[in-house]
Amino acid sequence: MRYFIEISYKGTAYAGWQIQKNALSVQEVIEKALSVSLREPISIVGSGRTDTGVHALQQFAHFDYASPLSSQILKNWNALLPKDITICGLYQVSQKAHSRFDAISRTYQYRIVQNKNSFLQDLALYFPYKLNVEIIQEASRLLLNYEDFESFSKIKANTPHFKCKIYEAFWQVQKDLVSGKDVLVFQISANRFLWGMVRAIVGTLLEVGQGKMSLSDFEQIIQARNRSKASAAAPACGLYLASVKYPFILSST
């Protein structure tokens, strides 16, 4: 039987999602907890990778297990996991279902605070510089006119192509639930993302918002298909995998 698990995590303490030889990853911690609970080695396949320090509000992974499982086991799994990782849901799916290849869209958010906030350390980028939100909103809309985003991909990315279909890209102000302060949030959804793409886009948009480059400059960077033309990537602490959607999981948000 094949199962999907829905996961959320704070990525600060981890060297990203994927298992690595000399660093602790989210995948490794979850696999160990499931293996202890189910009393056999369990390997999981994630819907995608997140880098060191990146968070997930909603991540999915799949694994195979011979016996029936119910959501009642989630309490046991979460008791075995550290406080910064939670398994939120369990879904039995078709044996052919794949957490990575069957996803029809993914949404990322990048969070910025412009006033120092002790409660959001490692959870948002502290960026105390003046930003023209109207300009970066306009620049974000330009992304929807293009499909090749090589300029925002890490140079060593192992990918057959750099094409992505972006469905939305916009900025909004949200209230932090703990402090009540404003958080500036960039949200972007697409059918796929390149390695380092969102952080590179945000880093470049922040240059636009400070008046260091124009809208025309930003569009020329997209057209250049050259990573060296874009700005440095924004820090990992503000990035979240916000949601992953599948046609067969109705509760996916």
Automatic annotation (TrEMBL):
GO terms for biological process: tRNA pseudouridine synthesis. The active site is at D51. It comes from the Bacteria. Pfam families: PseudoU_synth_1. It catalyses: uridine(38/39/40) in tRNA = pseudouridine(38/39/40) in tRNA. GO terms for molecular function: RNA binding; tRNA pseudouridine(38-40) synthase activity. It is an enzyme of class 5 (isomerase). Substrate binds at Y108. Transmembrane segments: none annotated. Residues 147-247 form the Pseudouridine synthase I TruA alpha/beta domain. Keywords: Isomerase, tRNA processing. NCBIfam families: hisT_truA (TIGR00071). Belongs to the tRNA pseudouridine synthase TruA family. Homodimer. Formation of pseudouridine at positions 38, 39 and 40 in the anticodon stem and loop of transfer RNAs. This is tRNA pseudouridine synthase A. It comes from Raineya orbicola. The gene is truA.
